[in-house]
Design a protein that fits this description.
The complex is a heterodimer of chains A (100) and B (536).
Chain A: H1 13-28, E1 40-41, E2 45-46, H2 47-69, H3 75-80, H4 84-88
Antiparallel strand pairs in A: 1-2
Helix pairs in contact in A: 1-2
Chain B: H1 3-8, H2 10-31, H3 37-42, H4 49-60, H5 63-76, H6 79-110, H7 115-122, H8 126-158, E1 172-173, E2 179-180, H9 190-238, H10 242-251, H11 253-256, H12 267-272, H13 284-291, H14 299-328, H15 337-345, H16 349-387, H17 394-419, H18 425-438, H19 440-448, H20 454-477, H21 496-514, H22 520-527
Antiparallel strand pairs in B: 1-2
Classes of the chains: A mainly alpha (100), B mainly alpha (536).
Chain lengths: 100, 536
Amino acid sequence: MAGSGRSGQGPGAGRYWIWGFFLVLFVFHHDFWWWGDRTLVWGFLPIGLAYHAGFSVAAGALWALAARYDWPAHIEEWADQPSRLAAADGPGAGAGEVRS
Amino acid sequence: MTPEAAASALPLIVIAGYLGLLVLLGLVSSRFFKGTSADYFVVSRSVGPFLLLMSIFGTTMTGFAMVGSTGKAYTIGIGVYGMMASWSGLIHSAVFFVIGIRLWAMGKRHGYVTQCQYFRDRFESPALGYLLFPVLVLLVIPYLLVGVIAAGKFLHSTTAGMFPSVFPLPELVLADGTTRPHPLSGGVPPWLGGLVICLIVLFYVFFGGLRGAVWANTFQTLVFLGAGLIAFVLISSRLGGLSEAGRMVAESEFGASRLARAGMVGHLQFFSYCLVPLSVGMFPHLFQHWLTAKSAKSFRLTVVAHPIFIMLLWVPCILVGLWASAKFGAGVNPNAVLGRMVGELVHSPILTGLVGAGVLAAIMSSLDSQFMCLGTMFTNDIVVRRFGRHRFNDREKILLARGFILFVVAVTYALAVYLKDSAHVFDLGVWCFSGFAALFPLVWAAVYWRRATRAGAIASLLTTIGVWGVLFYRDILAVKPAGAGDEELLIAGMMPVTFIFAAAAVALVVVSWLTRPPRPETLEQFFDLPAAGAER
């Protein structure tokens, strides 16, 4: 996965919580219990639509937690290292430059 | 021009003003152009969190999001939000998180600007690069068509009645033999609206490169989010308020059934839509936007805010579509639903123009990146690859990209004019997304599975295009028998993407296991990321 836990300790516990939360959201996306319900929340918002709008907010919360607890901070350093592929293709194509 | 005529043309003047601002933005962004191909193609990898969020969101949301979602909500009701928007909120950010950041890092380290360059190196196969290019172009074309058709249709319905002597339409003959004026008579025809939109996008992409597109996308995202909100408030107010609009739908014979999913959407159909948002993992224009990021940290805001932005845009559109189902009843072209709601209910010409500008903003913010990525791919993956990277200087590479963009715009425009009356924006969009989603196993395996091989990648690609092509032909191109409806093609109750995706994944895994793995020294270039990361 993209993220990693604290240095040298393998994937942190945060990662398991994040992907557990992802799995829960994935399963609860299918709200069959409101499939035929035409109730209007606050008089205008169909209940199935209200549920899925809330689902979107929950997805935002999930990714906020992922950004906080499972962010792949090490990847910056890796990206800045010189590339043997780029070097083999000629000058002017090191890290961050265009190889075209 | 009489005062009445001037007032009736006000929406068009507002839209023209907005388009003029985009041209100006293109000119200003060109002043910041450094003259290098790195700057033209990936903005010198300098884009920060806010611009990345706005450009990625603007690129992902197209005519599909505003015109298509409203029309589909009118057709099948609220189920469209769960099928597209809430799945996308969850899955898009997941793909940005697990694929996008890694590809950004590989792009920065190895100097890539296109997907073909990455896949060619990862799978040690120049042939894969040449094979992937036409497949990506083929799949982007329907996406471009979605934009151009939606723009033309929307302008047509929004400007209806403004130019009765210039763009008249024949009267409609009703079933009882009587006639009535064509509701779209006097509107700017789709061929002209589409042409103007293509030319404006062409202008700022030509001169500003991807920087022009990033700046324009940011401006356009702000405009379409704001305009969507204005349209929602004005339309609901004209209908007597939110509760009154809700009551109207609940009491409408045609509209009430659209408040729920029973009878409108099947369970398997609803679930199988989860595969469609995986398409963002293989969109070439999104790949290019990822590469513009200044650092991995730039992705944080995008990953977190994307689902919320989707909700802010889609919920109002779905509600407007529901209200349209009660107001119009059956028989309205889904592509024209939003335009008609705005045209008939928003009586302020200036606000009508602003909303029109917002819809065009959503459409153009995708078109620019798609045109740009096709020019980038043609230059880097075909011409430079074929003739050698030292054969052309930066100026020549940019010229090549511009030439190919011009060619693609011309082809897209011609196809859009030809298909404008037969293709549904939403359905065409779903087909495009389905094709890209079926390529997701390929990018996943390239990033995470060392055992994935060149032969496996090629087999997966060929399988995707074969299965997608057959099903696309059957659903969109083939002549339907008399009496056939416009329903989505479902196979065993599921979206076709399920089967295209499964076939592509099976081909990739089986052929990879049967063939020789890539060389260790190649894998080392892509899989030497430390297992555990540094401190944040």
